């Protein structure tokens, strides 16, 4: 009896797993191609009043790390390279 429940839940588990990977890829957790950086950085910097410097540093970080965190603020833990790149003073280099 317990085995039949496992076989019924297996397709659901696989569906959730596939959806998780596709969502992670669409939000920048996966490696980007350099040509994808413009669109991702444009969205990342869309909520700031300092758009020009934000775009400059975001594009620089994206070209090095091939990753841009999802959203317009925070979520840097999803891109370790982007998150850990610091200025000489120790502040965050990437927006």
Describe the 3D structure.
The protein is 56% helix and 0% strand. The chain has 95 residues and is mainly alpha-helical. It has one domain (2-84). It starts with a helix and ends in an 11-residue tail after the last helix.
Q: What is the end-to-end distance?
A: 53 Å
Q: SSE string, helix = H, strand = E?
A: HHHH
Count of distinct structural domains: 1
Average pLDDT for all residues = 82
Can you summarize the main beta sheet?
none
**Helical residue percent band:** 55-70%
Instruction: Choose one word for the global shape.
Output: elongated
Pfam families: GASA
Signal peptide: 1-26
Keywords: Signal
Protein name: Gibberellin regulated protein
């Amino acid at each position: 009896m317990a085995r039949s429940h496992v076989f019924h839940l297996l397709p659901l588990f696989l569906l959730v797993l596939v959806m998780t990977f596709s969502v992670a890829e669409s939000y920048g957790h996966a490696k980007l191609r350099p040509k994808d950086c413009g669109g991702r950085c444009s969205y990342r910097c869309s909520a700031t009043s300092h758009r020009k410097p934000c775009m400059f540093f975001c594009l620089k970080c994206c070209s090095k790390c091939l990753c841009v965190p999802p959203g317009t603020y925070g979520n840097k833990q999803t891109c370790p390279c982007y998150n850990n790149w610091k200025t000489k003073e120790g502040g965050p280099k990437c927006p």
